[in-house]
């Protein structure tokens, strides 16, 4: 019965960081038959040195950092456990920094530099420290890392996290890329000094970096590797936010990620002993085999039961049900059937209606025992045509197994809506009538009856017939479109007013109908009809005056434009004729200086008053220039000072003086 070591034992290879490290075995003793369990604990020895990730570490610390600021340092790793694992850190003597050793939730150690005396860049630009990691062995093993600190000027404001500790939970076996937590920090600086970059703290274990990824821009912490609840139940992740200044400000936070167990491990059955063959005269109750079942999951996921291994199975995956609208409430519309090959409670089925839409609970109900689906209220095809739901069939096992069945209920249409007249409106109180001119030929469309039917398909087809008319021979109506045409040419002796009653029927069973009354006026001139329409229009409509003023404004603008263009044309024609006369006279007449005023003949002739005299000066090239008209000698009774050549009357005399040596001065 001696238990011997068969080969060299390496505790770190067998159990890693798990402590205590134990190996289990079972021993069967026969006659009498007994089963014993045993455990061998593998104890650790101090055979591993602490190891830093790198031999050097570099820090940039602003001289404006106040005393008490903390700076995490890279942690050393020691695969030993217990007292032989990493126990403490030591820092070389210096006047500015002290070392603070912290303990994580899992018992591991990490160190932080604590600034005790503020730095002065002008006094000392850099510092070199040595960090030593020691385990608890006897004698202790150690590791060293050189810490180089650059003292530089930094931003006035460092990033600040909105909370120092974040908590999140994530299910094991969560796919890569799943969002775990979103950290957020802010920086009061502007520009690059306010831009924040997120990263893992320097003492974050390599295992954490393999399992989680951090977005440097958004602060999103996502799953990167495969999480396993059975390996680690809680992760303590240290993150930092650093701005992009010349001397970046840094803030730190902690994220606690709880791994939630899922049922990802199947039970394992172990046959401890088998008795074969079995004697034919073995008594009832004789032990044939010993079975043990284990499950690595925890809580309910690790509880093992023997029996329910078949889910309910429906005769079909989906059902389509057609129900006439206006049904009686409480009628059954479907029976969902399913079977389960298990026995007893594991084969007992229950039916549940999954409420995708909360309103369905007031419309449908299902019997939990037999799967009969009932309608609780009357349905309306015009309100909703289709209802989609899911029926869940579940057995009574532990844990229970279930199957989902899709059910679609279609509401078929009944002819329960009569046609509705949209035009002419049946409830209108105005005396508006459609107008047709005398002498209109046959086949002219006068108006149209517009109607709709809320039903669907054949039940919504509408036919139009002329039920009653003042003169049945004068008008006809389209059977399918409701258009009213003249059946013959209008004559002088036809009545001036006509009333038509149109019958509208659908094609449902039974047929539903309604009627529309159309008034038609025979008007001699359109003005009379417009007068009638004006009388019918509401008196309190403010838009009527706006329309009138808009039309009036358009007319006035158009008239002004036409008059302006006509005046410009006349003026251009007059100038052209005058310049032509001046050009022809210039060849026979010599220009001279102004002489005596010769306007007596014009005054005696009665063509113009003595005060309406103009003196005009022209250059030698006057035939190509406009005339400069001076003011009258005496103002008019209205005080007008205008006097142009265009306003001159026949017989008006103008003295024209040509100057060959100079142009007229502004005064002239």
From TrEMBL:
| Principal location | membrane
Top-level lineage group: Eukaryota
Which SMART domains does the UniProt entry name for this protein?
A: CA (SM00112)
- One BP term from GO: homophilic cell adhesion via plasma membrane adhesion molecules
- Tell me which residues make up the Cadherin domain: 1-52, 53-161, 162-269, 315-421, 428-540
Named from the GO MF annotations, one term is: calcium ion binding
Q: Indicate the transmembrane segments per the record.
A: 548-571
Give Gene Ontology CC terms. plasma membrane
Question: Where is the protein found, in the record's own terms?
Answer: Cell membrane
Q: Does the keyword Membrane apply?
A: yes
Classify the protein's membrane topology as the record does. Single-pass type I membrane protein
Q: Keyword set for this entry?
A: Calcium, Cell adhesion, Cell membrane, Glycoprotein, Membrane, Repeat, Signal, Transmembrane, Transmembrane helix
Instruction: Return the InterPro entries for the record.
Output: Cadherin-like_dom, Cadherin-like_sf, Cadherin_C, Cadherin_CS, Cadherin_N, Protocadherin/Cadherin-CA
SUPFAM superfamilies in the cross-refs: Cadherin-like
Keyword Cell membrane recorded: yes
Instruction: Show the PANTHER family listed in the entry.
Output: CADHERIN-87A, PROTOCADHERIN GAMMA-C3
Name of the featured protein:
PCDGK protein
Gene symbol of the encoding locus:
Pcdhgc3
